[in-house]
Amino acid sequence: MQVFALSVLLLQYPVRHVFLPATPPYINTLAPIRWDKDSAMNIVDAARFLIAIVATLLLSAAAGAETIYLTAETLIDPVDGKRISNPVVEIEGDRIVKVTANGSVPASATRIDLAGKTILPGLADMHTHLTWYASDAGYNGLSVSYTDEAIRGVVNARKTLMAGFTVARNLGAGGFADVALRDAINDDRIPGPRLQVAGPSLGITGGHCDNNLLPKEYDAVADGVADGPWEVRKKVRDNKKYGADVIKFCATGGVMSKGTAVGARQYTLEEMKAIVDEAHTQGMTVAAHAHGTEGILFAIKAGVDSVEHSSLIDEEGLDLAIENGTFLSINLYTTEYILAEGVKNGVLPESMEKAAYIHELRRANFSRAVKAGAKMVYSTDSAVYPHGDNAVQFSRMVDLGMAPMQAIQAATVVAAELLRWEGDTGAIAPGYYADIIAVEGDPLDDISVLEKVEFVMKGGVVYKNETN
Ligand SMILES: [Zn+2]
Predict the structure, then answer these.
(1) Distance from the alpha carbon of residue 237 to the mean position of ligand 1, in angstroms
(2) How far apart are CA 262 and CA 79, in angstroms?
(3) Cα(230) to centroid of ligand 1, in Å?
(4) CA 106 / ligand 1 centre spacing (Å)
(5) Euclidean distance between the first and final Cα of the chain, in Å?
(6) pLDDT reading at 128 higher than 90
(7) 172 CA → ligand 1 middle, Å
């Protein structure tokens, strides 16, 4: 029991920090070894050096050899769309090495027993803004600096991970705060999901991705503003240079911005094609913010990888998305939240009107997209509503016609395809990262149980365990 308690304690921290400091401290503390035969310190130094080497090797061997056995009542496998009873998941380091049904666990093994629980792959949210709070809406946002964004990111990344989301795409942040956030998470300095980040979103002058809140004399221009095919190419190159993984651009007006018509197209087809060509050439994917019908159609024609929001998508857009394999990334819960809580958060009166206008239209189009068989990913636009509540959208998706398994697939295997992380995330299977969550009950019977994730493991490290 003590050994188990110690293991759990150690698992609170990234394994390589516990066992393998980047530079072994015992070597750092050694003075340079002087091979001077007259010095009495030589033998002592040599002995210390040897002890350090042996200790490092022993600790490395111990770390490398450890296998964790994770057991539960049920495993949900989104790849094959089925349940597995009494699963045994074997984990070495940050990866899963074996999954068996009704398997056995060696008596002396390190075991995490999630008896009575259902385990699933860690979830993925394909549209977040981790560097903003819900209360940063409208004029409140003007007081948020890039430094503030970085700190908000640390707070929100943790909340998102603890809610069971081990993967997220951050589609838009100021000052490349999301790049710094991703890197700090990857270096195990702070807890958070695996991130793909966009940096500043590209947008036209005065468009949804510009800052239109202040009069001319303030000269407020958002980071990602670029007009014309060559300016947008340069902006894509800039974002690549400073660490973005994905390009986000605003194809149409939006709900939360001042002075933009939610249905109106903003970039031309020529500009969108330039963005997509440049991003794809640089090995990046492209996400288009698009509510309006024409903007959605142009974005798909330009070859974007995902259309965000997709509120007013028509038959032609839907057919073309299916034909091209374009992912639809539809956030359903945001308007519900804005209509209830928006005024308190500083949402502009015109944004309240726009939210009311698209609310039912988008819900209807979501149902049409599900029926038509479009590729759909789980996508919340969290920051419009509070981080950590990412999973509340599942129940809305199921209410509007998605099967519970399909909703889980949207947040796992289908998301991994959009991220180009197939084989790494989105499944509990050999070779994948050990990103595993657990809930009480069966999400295929009641999807809302995903709102109460009790256990979170990411890369073989346990970040949360409230299963008792
Ligand atoms: Zn967004």
Answers:
(1) 21
(2) 36
(3) 25
(4) 47
(5) 16
(6) yes
(7) 7
Cα of 334 from ligand 1 centre, angstroms? 10
Four-way CATH pick for 66-121+428-465: 1.25.40.10, 3.40.50.150, 2.30.40.10, 3.40.50.2300: 2.30.40.10
Q: How much distance in Å is there from the Cα of 243 to the middle of ligand 1?
A: 19
Rounded Cα gap, residues 407 and 395, in angstroms: 9
Ligand 1 ion: Cβ-proximal residues, 5 Å cutoff: 381
CA of 133 to the centre of ligand 1 (A): 12
Record: fold of 123-419: TIM Barrel (3.20.20)
What span, in angstroms and rounded, lies between the C-alpha atoms of 24 and 42?
21
Tokens 């240079």 belong to residue: 241
171 CA distance to ligand 1 centroid (A)?
6
Q: What is the pLDDT of residues 267-295, one digit of tens each?
A: 999 999 999 999 999 999 999 999 999 99
Burial letters 427-460, b for 16+ CB under 10 A, else e: bbeeebbbbbbbbbeebbeebebbbebbbbbbbb
Q: What residue ranges do the domains of the chain occupy? A: 13-64, 66-121+428-465, 123-419
Q: What is the pTM of this model?
A: 0.87
pLDDT in tens, 402-448: 999 999 999 999 999 999 999 999 999 999 999 999 999 999 999 99
Q: How far is the CA of 380 from the centre of ligand 1 (A)?
A: 8
Measured CA to CA, the distance from residue 237 to residue 249 in angstroms comes to 14
How many Å lie between the centroid of ligand 1 and the Cα of residue 438? 28
Yes or no: say if 306 and 418 are a contact pair by the CB < 8 Å rule.
Answer: yes
